[in-house]
Amino acid sequence: SRPRSSGINAEWPLRPGAQGVAINGIAIQGPNDAGDVSIDEAGFQLPCGGHVTPPMGNSETTGKVPAGPPKYHFHKSPECLSPFTDASKGLAAGGEPLKHGKLMGWAMDGFGIYTYQDVAGVAPVVDECGGHFGPTDTGEVKYHYHSRAIVPYHMACQGPALGQCDGTQSGTNYCHPGCGAQVCVQPGTSETKLKEYIGKFNDTWLEKYTTNPYNGDSALHLGAMTVILAITLNLVV
Predict the structure, then answer these.
(1) Which listed site, 58, 162, 204, 211, has its alpha carbon 20 to 30 Å from 176?
(2) What is the pTM of this model?
(3) Whether residue 74 has pLDDT greater than 50
(4) Would you place residue 34 in the very low, low, confident or very high pLDDT band (cuts 50, 70, 90)?
């Protein structure tokens, strides 16, 4: 069951085959290989998350021209790539486990795919497709996907999901649980920066949908007010 588009990218559905491409140029395929069974359910052991698939059919066995030469591609997260190893090799070795995951590839819709962790090393709060709005490793707020250690490994559909992921699936449903809202935003994200990003495309788009609690601006304001109050009390004393 290949992902198909939902939400703002409905005019750009994923084509059969690759979901995206990794930073090293290797294609990222969906969670299943042959048939409607995920890689893990089928019991495949994939070094670095990928393998070589032989040509589908040949003139001797099927009378058909081979579909092409064997090609290496990813299904699961390619944990041998530097974006993953940089986060997992430990602090003493220069690892960065408490930072937002680094870019490991791009989905076919153009949005970036990042490694497992979000800002401060916490788990990302993603929509049913596997993506969300929030700051990336550069601090820029944008919509992006996160790789996962479980199916669908990268993405179940093209996001934002808007609560429509189930309708994009055929066969096995690989949708994530979501965040309980139509649009998922990583908690702590600045509302100001989020609206600036979305405003580049459509100023009123976000108003049409529900969002999970996230506003980092409120937290910053509360923190600033707490500091001011503490200073005032000290001066009074």
Answers:
(1) 204
(2) 0.80
(3) yes
(4) low
Place of tokens 């939902």: 6
3-state DSSP of the chain: CCCCECHHHCCCCCCCCCCEEECCCCEECCCECCCCCEHHHHCCCCHHHEEEECCCCCCCCCCCCCCCCCEEEECCCCCCCHHHHHHHCCHHHCCCCCCCCCEEEEECCCCEEECCCCHHHCCCCCCCCCEEEEECCCCCEEEEEECCCCCCCCCCCECCCCCCHHHHCCCCCCCCCCCCCCECECCCCCHHHHHHHHHCCCCCCHHHCCECCCCHHHHHHHHHHHHHHHHHHHHHC
